[in-house]
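Changelog excerpt

This revision adds worked examples to the README so contributors can see how folded entries look when concatenated. The first example is reproduced verbatim below.
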Amino acid sequence: MIRTQELTVVYDRDNLVLDRVSVTIETGKIVGIIGPNGAGKSTFMKALLGLVVFDGQVHLAGQMGKEPPEYIAYVEQKSQIDNHFPITVRECVSLGLYKEVGLFRRLKKSDWTKVDTVLEQVGLSKFAKVPISNLSGGQFQRMLVARCLVQETQIIFLDEPFVGIDAVSERIIMDILKNLRNQGRTILIVHHDLSKVKRYFDTVMILNKKLLAYGPVEQVFTVENLRKAYEDTIFLGEEVE
């Protein structure tokens, strides 16, 4: 379970990004975090991970603190990652294991077997020895998901994982995430495409600095709630209740 109480984040002393957000997120769900640009979606995720300074409380699986626990895997936005770093796909995915084996220790054969298994899962086995700079946007995102999967954590955070990727990669990633959800994992996704919310998520959280709504998609994903967040800028591409 993930729980926040009065979670508040202020940047540069006077830029209020999150305002007293209190929410309880159930285990074993795919949760979509939606809201307009500047709503605090990524900041909310970073606060849970202890990556930004915050006021209030964060409880993760019964533990409270401001340090990211080891049982969370995090896939940040692709734009924040140097895709020209001289490393192969297989080597990049293996970095997910260094929290477990140690930064300066050599990986064992069993560790590399884990890496190869997740590469097959995301459909990148034939790219294992390819430099990461040679990947398409969708392939690069699948590689980041593989680096997350190899950690075998119970909670997974993904920040805008579907931005700028192809439909095949998006489908592969979403199928993997749904399988993980069915195994009891908890998955939080910062998401911007409202037309796919009902297909992708069990639960949705609507943010615009404050928590405007949280709950099952069929109850919360309504025009009334979306207008609170987006005002007159909503474009859904499909009907909502």
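The second example, added in the same revision:
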Amino acid sequence: MPRGASTNAPTGLVLSAPSSGSGKTTLTLGLLRALSRRGVDVSGAKSGPDYIDPRFHAAACGRDCPNLDAWAMGPARLHDLARSGAELLLIEGAMGLFDGAPPEGRGATADLARLFGLPVILVVDCARLAHSVAPLVNGFAHHDPGTRVAGVILNHVGSPRHEAMLRASLQDSLIPVLGAVYRQTGLEHPSRHLGLVQAEEHPDLQAYLDRVADVVEAEIDLDALVALAGPLTPSPGASQRLIPPGQRIAVASDKAFAFAYPHIMNDWRTAGAEVIPFSPLADEAPAPDADFIFLPGGYPELHAETLAAARSFKRGMQNATCQIYGECGGYMTLGRAITDKDGHRHEMLGLLALETSFAKRKLHLGYRFLAASEGPFSGQWNAHEFHYATTLLAEGTPLFEATDAEGRALAPMGLINGNVSGSFAHLIDRA
């Protein structure tokens, strides 16, 4: 499949694992870079609500990486996003193959495999396994008749003797072993409290991706892996795209505000809206003629001192009369202050009666059903919440009524004050 060749039937594979921490992301990046170097027209996709891995995927193969969220998105939307234009799609799963939202596990990586009719390559962390690898792999292979495990990659293998034991145990499983990747240092991602650092923050990203690709090329049978790819099932029809909240949309975009879903930005552009990036960290104000301002999520707490001193940014935001919306980190920035992990308080925009703190962290995590009767995103939404901030103060009119993935009522989310609104939730798609 040389790059640039055309096909009417894109193919794909799903890379999943029995659990988180098995090495899926590292191997996916290595595969994307190694196949791309061979001239294969390949792209990546990420299962679930993830802002960080897709940037690494894009850097590895030179193609945008969509989020494929089987909980928050309908089949038509998922099919539209999966058909990125590449001939081969590698979907990196989240958590374990069958792990999804409570109560029944909806949104699992297996849901994507069934929806697209794609085979699964199971990445198994063998650091603490030997002969027990066989019942583990066979259990996953036979758990769900609609999910086909087509191959296995043995990861974190300790020695040639260890590899021989693992392969011997799997001889009768009829599932091919595509490779054994030995345990080694230097391939792990640097991390922080919300997961990996962002791709643009990696100190030597291209060299890192080439190093992982070298390992993958040496230890995985790439030809056998590509040969297992299957065609995506037909799309059930075109998806309904999101209506842009304005014609000229100013979007904060830098290391503090990097968590904007590409499919939302693309929907706005497709509808004819102009998306105008600006950098609060560079003390840039939003375009003065913007008719909507969006502050996405990110890591404002890591840059709170810089944001507090960004006078042009603050003045431009405080003087804006158009609709302003903030999401998670952007929502916190719209408030009066953010207290960082060391207990230092930094003044923010003061557009909402909101104060947040990271001095005492508390995890808020899960899918959300949201409903708003006013504001720029009125109606019903599927969303996700993931942050460690503690709310010290939140006064005013709530923006969203909220329930969790199990339908249990939650406290109202977010605030709205005139033309300014936001919440901790990341909107994904219309409910």
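Reviewer comment on example two: The mean pLDDT is 94. The first helix runs from residue 24 to 37.
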